[in-house]
Design brief:
Blueprint: H1 7-19, H2 22-25, H3 39-51, H4 57-68, H5 75-81, E1 92-93, E2 96-97, H6 98-115, H7 118-122, H8 131-143, H9 149-157, H10 159-165, H11 176-186, H12 211-219, H13 230-241, H14 252-260
Antiparallel strand pairs: 1-2
Helix pairs in contact: 1-14, 3-11, 5-6
Length: about 280
């Protein structure tokens, strides 16, 4: 790896001190997960919240509330036992419809009935593979969960949208929202992230790269790419390991909220080269 400017460590730490706080959590979709106390309910609500984390924050929060509302106070227990047909009729969140949500929920219901937690399903093939392999396996196995007959044709028709909603790194996607979900459930509980999963380590996580963070990576000269891809996310994570080897995406929330607040990193001249 090309040498990185050590001054960035001070800049990242300042962003962390300024923005990694409960006050900023209250401006983030993750705040909706904190309405639940049971870890199983937090896991389910975090997954659904992360899937809809595209677009403006106000719209995301409004849409997530609509998706969570039918699940009541105990989403995990509700999903395992209830009929889901028609619960999200008329729902829209940009490219995502109520039918898409129902398809995902039906598959998630199968997962929870067989495994009791998303973590158990995610790690069914172990936890030692690279994250790209683990995520791709999770997505493919989730897509293969059975659907009620009335939803099968809809799932075929909505295939492209469903692949956007739950993206696969094997198709080149940066998988921003799945990586965001993993950050929430794997990083230690710190008032923002939840620390729910114990069998994955924070050092295995990949940076959740969206278009906003991509611009920061370009300013850092860590990439020249105009697209957020899995390769870009992996390379950016590798750069961040220089600053925090055991927890490379420690700064993700802070960098995101720095940008949301209308600020930008004051980046010194870097000695590193752009590789992606």
């Amino acid at each position: 790896m090309a040498q990185l400017n050590p001054d960035l460590a001070l800049i990242f730490e300042k962003a962390y001190r300024d923005f990694h706080s409960v006050a900023h959590r209250n401006q983030d979709p993750i705040r909706l997960v904190y309405q639940y106390q049971d870890p199983k309910d937090q896991e389910v609500s975090a997954f659904l919240t992360a899937l809809l984390a595209y677009g403006g924050v106000t719209t995301i929060i409004s849409s997530v509330k609509k998706v969570l509302a039918p699940l009541g106070k105990n989403p995990h227990a509700f999903l395992k036992t209830a009929s889901l047909r028609g619960l999200w009729s008329g729902f829209y969140h940009r490219f995502t419809t109520g039918e898409d949500i129902e398809i995902v929920m039906q598959r998630l219901q199968c997962v929870l009935r067989q495994n009791d937690s998303i973590e158990a399903f995610f790690l069914k093939e172990g936890n030692q593979q690279p994250m790209k392999v683990l995520l791709s396996s999770f997505v493919r196995r989730l897509e293969n969960e059975p659907l009620p007959l009335y939803l099968k044709k809809t799932a075929e028709k909505r295939s492209r949208n469903l692949k956007y909603l739950i993206s696969d790194p094997a198709r080149g996607s940066a998988c921003k929202r799945l990586n965001l979900f993993l950050r929430w459930v794997v990083r230690p509980k710190d008032g923002i992230d939840l620390g729910l999963w114990k069998q994955l380590s924070p050092k295995q996580l990949i940076l959740p790269v969206d278009t906003h963070l991509l611009q920061t990576l370009k300013r850092l000269k860590w990439t020249r790419s105009d697209q957020a891809t899995w390769k870009v996310a992996e390379l950016a994570t590798e750069k961040l390991r220089f600053f925090c080897p055991e927890d490379p995406i420690r700064y993700d929330f802070a960098l995101c909220h720095l940008s949301m607040s209308g600020h930008s990193l004051q980046i010194p001249e870097s000695r590193g080269k752009s590789h992606a």
